[in-house]
Write a structure and sequence with these properties.
Structural class: alpha/beta
Number of strands: 10
Strand order of the largest sheet: 6-7-8-3-9-10
Length: 251
């Protein structure tokens, strides 16, 4: 289980008078993600989703609070945790000079996956994502959708227990998006836990067991999509979000 416990992250910025002011990217955020569950982290750009996911993935450190993954924390178990999680964002940078095959082999070696296991896993991944035609091409020559498939592929080579996806379908066409969403649903059936961040509310309604709605760094609602729709007396999560924040902001 992933447990996010009272996470707060502060940053400083310059105000209109060029004075340093402190703002909260995330403020006292708490929720849990179980194995075999897809939890959506939903909200507009600037809501604090990416900062939170980077904290969950161990890339950033919170000012307050703690992330616990299978009872372990990053302070004492950093390497152990990173062996069982995979993090992918819509703008994840890949080694453009490598081919998908070479990248997966490199990642597998990094996680010390046994060669015979790694070779079979790479073959299975290539077939799973229909990568046969471009598996040996340089990544810099691939389309956006192909590159995103490679990004997911490199997350699979160490067979993680938990996935953390940050806007994974942003900017993709409908076919490439479907490949990713189908993969997420399949991994749920395999007992994997998934945190799925998006501002596409319709996607979340389609795949998430529970959702966490955030705005301006704070949780404004949690529950199943059906529970939130019932609470807000709306027919979709987009309308539910606007209902919870009191309409469209001018900010």
């Amino acid at each position: 289980m992933i447990e996010i416990k009272n996470i707060t992250k502060k940053f400083q910025k310059l105000d209109e008078n060029k004075k340093k002011v402190t703002f909260l990217a995330d403020n006292d955020i708490s929720f849990k993600v179980k194995e075999g569950e897809i939890v959506g982290l939903l909200g507009p750009n600037g809501a604090g989703k990416t900062t939170l996911l980077r904290i969950i993935a161990g890339i950033m450190t919170p000012n307050e609070g703690e992330v616990s993954i299978d009872g372990m924390n990053y302070k004492n178990n950093d390497l152990e945790i990173k062996k069982i999680i995979a993090f992918l964002s819509g703008n994840t940078k890949l080694y453009k000079e490598l081919s998908p095959n070479e990248l997966m082999e490199m990642c597998g070696n990094y996680y010390k996956v046994e060669k015979s296991v790694l070779d079979k896993r790479i073959k299975d991944i290539i077939k799973r994502f229909s990568m046969e035609k471009f598996q040996n091409q340089r990544i810099e020559n691939l389309s956006t959708g192909q590159t995103q498939r490679v990004g997911i592929a490199r997350c699979l080579v160490h067979n993680p227990k938990y996935y953390i996806f940050d806007e994974a379908t942003s900017g993709l066409d409908i076919i490439s998006s479907k490949v990713i969403l189908d993969f997420i649903k399949e991994e749920k059936k395999n007992g994997k836990g998934v945190i799925y961040s998006t501002h596409y509310m319709e996607e979340a309604e389609n795949i998430c067991d529970r959702v966490v709605l955030v705005n301006k760094g704070e949780i404004i609602a949690t529950g199943t999509p059906a529970e939130i729709l019932k609470k807000t007396k709306t027919s979709n999560l987009r309308d539910a979000f606007f209902s919870l924040i009191g309409g469209v902001s001018n900010e």
